[in-house]
Amino acid sequence: MGMTFAQKVLAKKSGQNHVAVGQIVTVKPDYLLTHDNTAAIIGKIGTELEKYGVARNDLNLIVLDHVIPAASEKNAAGHKKVREFVKKYNIQHFFDLGEGICHQVVYEKGFARPGRIIVGSDSHTCSYGAVGTFATGVDRTESAALTLTGETWFKVPPTIKVTLKGQLSKGVSAKDIVLKIIGDISADGANYMAVEFHGDIQNLTMDDRFTIANMGIEMGAKIAAFPVDDSTQAFFSEYNIPFDASEVLWADEDADYVRELEYDLSSLEPVVAAPHTVDNVKPVGALEGTPLDQVLLGTCTNGRLSDFEAAAAILKGKKVHAGTRMLILPASRHIMREAMRLGYIDALVAAGAVMLPPGCGPCLGAHQGAMAPGEKTLSTANRNFKGRMGCKEAEIYLAGPATVAASALHGQITDPRKEVA
Hints:
The chain folds into two domains: 5-264, Aconitase, domain 3 (2-Layer Sandwich), CATH 3.30.499; 272-418, 2-Layer Sandwich (Aconitase, domain 3). Helix content is 31%, strand content 18%. It has 15 helices and 18 strands. The strands form five sheets. The chain has a five-stranded parallel sheet, sandwiched between helices.
């Protein structure tokens, strides 16, 4: 019997020819991602750090992105502690505020590559499966231990195979694909499983794949991965990232799957995840007309150039509804500058949108864009739990960028196909 992608990577990284589902393996990850929470993580191991130091000064990837610029003295003190740690231990990979959201930075800077293992103290670390990386979230205690030892263990996960066929129709996006899947299998339908995407992958852009992989954790997945193809290689070339074909790993044709799903992309329609769970997914028509106080375009899920292009195409020359606030949040400085150069930011700001710095703030309710009791927000983010955007008495709906833009225009949830030529 052949091996799945997860088995292939974990076998190679643990120095074995073959590993079985359920087997425990010890590996040394290529990188450990942390962000503002680095201050709390190193606070757990202050004595040990003084005695032993860090395992490797090139292991830690640190990006300040969650509350930037600092919203309080407490945040500022945390940022200062991180900068001092970076300097004291000569941490090689540090990105200060303004560079972007950690997941996009890791992606753009070339740390995520085929066959690598990246773990991060952030659940959406699974995003890097878009480029054939075994990427998964770990908790802060595990991150602390990794900082000291440089190694961790995994139980080899079973795998779900998702086959995507055909092409999306106009007005339907990758966000609709992943929300549809989550709605079908539930928010815990892939708990501690790997999810592989197969089929007509060539019809999905790298932005599409990143969006889908990003939300793997919203179905409980340990990892969510795509095969490496010409589009992947073109992405590496565009960002001047070295590409080594010998490092590419993918599932064998006779690999064993615990479950198989198939979707006809041409039959999908825009969907919305209604409060207060990501798997509460409904066709956009079922919620059309729901009034909105705020919309958010951006975050690590849908804050890329193609997302701003889609929104600008709908809102250029028009105005955001008078009763609705629109926030836009590029995923990185690079994306922000490109969106400015191409006129997408100008079109959205002219329409009435408010631009925020490249970071995480409103997505988790930590900084900017907080909601008031009774308010409703439609967001391109990845979670809509109670209190996620700073208020337990508010409601968060999730959708793709075109749906968010069309809804901003009308001040209520709107089918984007009405605005897409």
